[in-house]
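pinned: reference chain
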Amino acid sequence: MTYLNSKNYFLDKNIIYITDSPLSCFKKFKSQFNFIVAAGGVVQNKHKDVLMIYKNQIWDLPKGKIENNENSEKTAIRELKEETNVEIKYINSQSFSTYHMYCIKSKIYLKETKWFLMSSNCKNELIPQISEGIKKVKWVRSHNLNQIKTYTLIKDVFTFFLNY
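pinned: its structure tokens
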């Protein structure tokens, strides 16, 4: 835990734990952290380009915390609009969850993100949500996704939805 409390780290490792009772083991693991549930999406336009945000000096996908009385689909749509100014035309109800950890002010968070595949024909200007630390928003050609600097976890999301 000392390592995770450090402010200057980039941990890109998988954790593997072998057990006969994975659900109870994971429940106990989650209880050790501040647990957050978020939702976001892989948004494609008519050219199959993918909407990306640039935050913390790395390309990422739009996502955000689920708020009171909101389901994950509504959260994903709301967060996409807030972070990019893009409106969603279609959202696939099939979701895929990832988990990652981060540290803020010596508190360790475990975040589950529910991802959706979405499409948009929105022609709005792309506007980054500066208040959330987003510096840029752009459509990335699908054949260029393997060349951008992003998290391994995001590449896993691309693999799930886009056979990347």
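why pinned: The CA atoms of residues 29 and 153 lie 19 Å apart. The first helix runs from residue 2 to 5.
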